[in-house]
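Problem: given the chain below (267 residues), write out its structure.
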Amino acid sequence: MVYKNFKKYFLIFLHLQKINIMRWVAYPASFFMNFVATLLVMMLSILFIKVNFGYIDSIAGWSYYQVLGVVGSYMIVEGIMWVLFSMLNAINVHIKDGTLDGILLKPINSQFLVSFWKGDPEDSLRIVTGIILIILAMRNTIGFDLGHFILFLMLLINGVIALYSFDIFFRSFSFWIIDGSGLWLLMERITINSQYPVDIYYNKIVRGVFTFIVPLAFVATVPAKILTNIDIDWQFTALSFVVAFVFFFGSRWFWEFSLKHYSSASS
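Solution.
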């Protein structure tokens, strides 16, 4: 039964990705413009780091290449989020317009469908750029270490899960506030800080909030720390798995709870 369900959802996932690619091929000019815009955004992020390290040797104990590791990790996580889950932003539109009814009537998990129904293939550029930065970070810090690299990949997956869960948790508030564009903008401004080491926040309370309440530290800082430091911080490594588990199942529960407060278009 579990295998059949997994196969069913995997085939649906592949079909949705096929539709995304077909949409991309149908509008090449739009893809090109989005591609260029994405490239410029990433180049500005790298330039910002480069300019800052033109005046300093390290920040909060992080060297230039270690910070590139954080930026690269964030770009990979952000790229995965955009490629797979770009239309999470449309949840409040579905609720406001009543089109969520059509999703709920389909014989498939509603959270799965609203998460994967549309992605942005052009944002795969973020993943490629992130990989290049990760290679630079490894080569100029501890070099390539298979154990560190495998652990890094596992923690990066945890980062994707944590960021996705945090996103779906916030989007679920749309069942009460309907149009929460201001709240979504605040959430995006907060989560974008994942591209910088959490250690730059010297205030312990702020650093604690960005570690355990808003899981920014586990999105990119902890994976990059494993990748670019000889010594492994096993405490934060273990916490990464705990945070991913708690946030994922917590967001699943909150989504199901929020659905009970949905007033459909036919109500």
